[in-house]
Design brief:
Layout (H helix, E strand, L loop, with lengths): L5 H25 L3 H21 L3 H36 L1
Helix pairs in contact: 1-2, 2-3
């Protein structure tokens, strides 16, 4: 008989929590809150990566890791764009 342990339940909960966080990221992204969406996706994908290691799902772990890298790249680009827009606004008001 295969007994489900506390650890098994926590691993399962981690997978569902990661899914919920990533879905929340899509919702806030659709509302135009792009930095918050990226933050949620990062948290969710990090959780998925941990979950994937726990269940030996290495192909999805690689996908989640790539998505983390893409989100970090997107965050960097959004911050750079925001900084250049702020510089432009300061120059116009002078």
């Amino acid at each position: 008989m295969n007994e489900v342990t506390y650890i098994d339940n926590m691993i399962e909960l981690l997978g569902w929590a990661a899914t919920a966080v990533v879905l929340a990221g899509f919702i806030v992204n659709s509302r135009g809150q792009h930095l918050l969406a990226l933050a949620l996706w990062l948290v969710g994908d990090i959780a998925w990566t941990i979950y994937d290691v726990c269940i030996d799902n290495y192909s999805h772990m690689v996908l989640s890791s790539a998505i983390i890298a893409i989100n970090l790249y997107g965050y960097k680009n959004i911050k750079a764009k925001d900084e250049s827009n702020n510089l432009g606004e300061g120059q116009r008001s002078a």
